[in-house]
Design goal:
Layout (H helix, E strand, L loop, with lengths): L12 H7 L6 H9 L2 H10 L4 H6 L2 H5 L6 H23 L7 H12 L6 E7 L5 E9 L9 H10 L4 E7 L9 H17 L2 E8 L4 E3 L9
Parallel strand pairs: 3-4
Antiparallel strand pairs: 1-2, 1-3, 4-5
Helix pairs in contact: 2-3, 6-7, 8-9
């Protein structure tokens, strides 16, 4: 077991982490996590250096690579989850939302990779600072399955002045559906009753997003 930096061989990825972590290749990073160079190379070849494919993959997918067991697969799956939380934590710290693009930028990277529909709510204060991003629903986003009150629960608890609704289309096409438009109208009406303004409803697709407000869908 290595106890001192001086004991690390200078031609290894571990040493480069100490000297300059940004110089590491993908294979170097996965060698550190997995522990063996040959398995790391096989793993990187498996997802073809496509980090979006890596993020979408399941623990079972990882275990299909020879040499990767359950414990290693679990560690690998933790990486994109931690990265996403770091991005959200960084982006929401005193972030001001001035446009639909600002809101989309906070979540598009992660939400475009999700395999099922997820609805999240961006909570804003009176100065349009982001208070939080909360997930309130997983499943088909339509008027028959969503309880509108759930969408506003955290907004009321946090005393949010306004909200932005955001959900994804796993198909990759962000074109709003009739259900998207209908549920937007329901959100807006509920917001008026609860004194929480619904600023927008965004649909996230693969590399694209749509603002229902900009398109005049559901907003009068």
């Amino acid at each position: 077991m290595i106890h001192k930096i001086s004991e690390i061989a200078i031609d290894t990825p571990m040493y480069r982490v100490y000297k300059d972590p940004f110089s590491l290749s993908l294979t170097d990073m996965f060698e550190i996590i997995i522990g063996k160079r040959e398995i790391a190379e096989s793993f990187v070849n498996w997802f073809k250096s496509d980090l979006m494919l890596f993020q979408r993959a399941s623990i079972t997918d990882f275990m299909n690579v020879p040499g990767i067991g359950l414990a290693t697969a679990a560690r690998l799956k933790t990486i994109p989850v931690l990265a996403n939380r770091l991005v959200l934590a960084t982006n929401t710290d005193k972030t001001i939302i001035q446009s639909p693009a600002d809101a989309a930028a906070l979540v598009q990277y992660e939400m475009s990779t999700l395999e099922q529909e997820v609805l999240r709510v961006l909570l804003l204060d009176t100065r349009s600072h982001v208070l939080d991003i909360v997930e309130v629903y997983r499943g088909s986003v339509n008027t028959t399955q969503i309880r509108v009150g759930e969408v506003f629960k955290d907004a009321i608890r946090r005393n949010a002045f306004s909200i932005i609704i955001i959900h994804n289309h796993p198909s990759g096409d962000p074109t709003p559906s009739p259900d998207d438009v209908a549920v937007t109208r329901a959100f807006i009406q509920a917001g008026k009753l609860l004194d929480v303004e619904v600023l927008d409803h965004l649909v996230i697709g693969q590399g694209r997003w749509v603002s229902l407000k900009e398109r005049g869908l559901g907003f009068s």
